[in-house]
Design brief:
single chain, alpha+beta, 7-stranded antiparallel β-sheet, 6-stranded antiparallel β-sheet, 19 helices, 18 strands, globular, binds glycine
């Protein structure tokens, strides 16, 4: 219904363009009743609200949220990292993904993390300056402001600069993340000085101030991309990285560019899915798994049968991910085939409804490595513009290296490459050739910022969680498909299968004892996760009830906010 109305409007718009020669204004049918922001930190959500209240649109708010997260959630993302911004511009129904993924430096080599015997050196792709890819997030923020936002970059960055200068409060989650990475952080005096207290995670309530980062963000605000990728800051970044054993050159920073990519689009029942294309594997695996599930009788399935089907769909979609996916500038990714119904039908026809298929029984291939810590946020403005953004520094606190005087904590996204084909990385995962290291290549990602659209409902969602991101977004999508409220998408107990290792990882609440026994009887190997995982932040715009709701994952410390801004972001009517 909504799709048909939208198409009619676009036809009229095209007709007006031909005859009037101008971009027509759009009617207000797609105006949202409220704005919403859901992110992993209350200060970041508040930054988005501040910018929307100041007359910014969802894209300006995304800059504010991303930059604030870079300051107050340094273990998850940062301007030393990268990520993907999935955008929907309501005025012309334009969907696009801003690929701000990190890039391997020019001196990177396929074997750079191997020793003289060709074996991976533990930690080399994870800790220290050699582990860092060329950051993409600063370029992404500038691109958003220049091409999609309404406000000056300086305005959208102001909340983040304030939090960097004045400080933010250490929380229990910060302490846990810093606890994971204390040794690596202590290996770099600058990182330890900023983020630790006497070499240990600071006490709850400690104020962390980052004046160097405030100055770096102010440079970005003043000079745009040249404020980061050229000039004195670039010189300081490169000097710091090289002094720390890394291989960055000024030319690597100068040549970094974001890429505008067409999202992958699929359909599951009446839901249109818009998600992240390569170099993320997220959208393809999500759509492939949903296509497989469309080919089995999920509606008529009981709880055991349904869980079995979902696990088997995950297994097969993750297998294809391992074989085919990498940076599309270096690898031919058969996107159309992998997301086609015919491909999924062939897989579904081969799927036993009663028994787990051992992964070794599928055509062999090895899955690529993925990191574990990242952030996601969702934004909706009152014009109906949307952002789903998933951003990362990879491991908590990235590579734990900060070039002195910059405040830029660097990523270790280089570990998302396969350091050595078929050899496990720090997460025990192994990788395929399509994702081998090469100069200027972008490492394969699992980040899955997504939009879900039916004629009557719009969903915006995503989560951190390494390779488990995709299975979490899949479960969130099934929750959306079942008509559940947004609070349920983010809270639903999780389980995950990624082809190899051949096991189902599950949160304690996901499977009760009878379900466990039934799945084991079908041949599934179950592994209880030692902690809850994921941190999903989602928005639902229900056009039947004309309501917007939003939710932050109860596993995290995030906050979701829905309100009517003083200044509505609405484009005028054409008539
Ligand atoms: N570093 C996490 C991902 O890109 O999937």
């Amino acid at each position: 219904m909504r799709h048909r109305a939208r198409h009619a409007r676009l036809l009229i718009a095209a007709w007006l363009c031909l005859f009037v020669g101008a971009v027509p204004a759009r009617d207000t049918a797609d105006a949202a009743p409220s704005a919403a922001v859901a992110s992993a930190h209350p200060l970041a959500t508040a930054a988005g609200r501040e910018i929307l209240d100041a007359g910014g649109n969802a894209f300006d708010a995304a800059i504010a949220v991303a930059a604030a997260l870079a300051v107050v959630e340094p273990y998850s993302s940062g301007i030393g990292g990268g990520g993907f911004f999935l955008l929907h511009r309501a005025a012309d129904d334009h969907d696009v993904m801003i690929d701000a993924r990190e890039m391997a430096p020019g001196e990177a080599t396929r074997d750079m993390y191997l020793d003289a015997n060709g074996e991976p050196v533990r930690g080399r792709s994870m800790n220290g300056a050699l582990a860092a890819g060329i950051p993409g997030t600063p370029a992404g923020l500038v691109h958003l402001a220049e091409h999609y936002g309404r406000l000056p970059l300086a305005t959208s960055l102001a909340p983040a600069i304030r939090h960097a200068r004045d400080g933010f409060v250490v929380t229990p989650h910060y302490r846990i993340m810093a606890g994971f990475r204390t040794d690596a952080m202590n290996a770099n005096a600058e990182t330890a000085r900023i983020f630790l207290a006497h070499g240990a995670p600071p006490a709850d309530g400690t104020i962390v101030k980052q004046p160097d980062l405030a100055a770096t963000l102010a440079r970005l605000a003043a000079y745009g991309r040249d404020g980061f990728y050229a000039g004195p800051l670039a010189a300081r970044l490169v000097a710091g990285v090289r002094a720390g054993g890394g291989i960055w050159q000024l030319d690597d920073l100068a040549r970094y560019r974001v890429v505008e990519r067409a999202p992958v689009v699929g359909h599951y029942r009446d839901i249109r899915i818009v998600s992240a294309p390569p170099p993320s594997s997220g959208g393809i695996v999500l759509i492939e798994a949903l296509n497989i599930l469309e080919g089995v009788d999920l509606a008529g399935a009981d709880r055991v049968q349904r869980t079995h089907f979902v696990i088997e769909a995950m297994r097969r979609a993750y297998r294809d991910r391992a074989e085919y996916l990498g940076d599309p500038a270096f690898t031919d990714v058969p996107v159309a085939r992998l997301t086609s119904k015919t491909h999924a039908q062939a897989i579904a026809a081969d799927l036993s409804p009663a028994r787990a298929t051992p992964s070794t029984a599928l055509k062999p291939v090895a899955p690529p490595a993925q990191g574990d810590h990242t952030t996601h946020f969702s934004v909706l403005d009152t014009a109906g513009n949307r952002v789903a953004a998933t951003l990362s520094v990879n491991f908590p606190f990235g590579c734990a290296f900060t070039p002195p005087g910059t405040g830029v904590l660097l990523n270790n996204e280089m570990d998302d490459f396969s350091s050595k084909v078929m050899t496990p990385n720090g997460y025990g995962l192994v990788g395929a050739d399509a994702n081998a290291i090469a100069p200027y290549k972008r490492p394969l990602s699992s980040m899955t910022p997504s939009f879900l659209e039916t004629p009557e409902r719009i969903g915006i969602l995503g989560t951190p969680g390494g390779s488990r991101i995709i299975s979490m977004v899949l479960l969130g999508t099934l929750s959306f498909a079942a008509g559940e409220p947004v609070e349920r998408w983010v809270a639903t107990p999780r389980y995950h299968h990624q082809y190899l290792p051949d096991e189902v990882l599950f949160e304690p609440d996901a499977f009760d004892a009878p379900l466990r026994s039934a799945l084991e009887a079908r041949g599934h190997r179950l592994t209880l996760s030692n902690r809850d995982y994921g941190n999903m932040h989602a928005i639902l715009w229900d056009q039947r009830t004309h309501t917007v709701t939003a939710a932050s994952d109860p596993r995290g410390e995030g906050e979701a906010d829905v309100w009517v801004p003083a200044v509505r972001t609405v484009t005028p009517r054409a008539d």
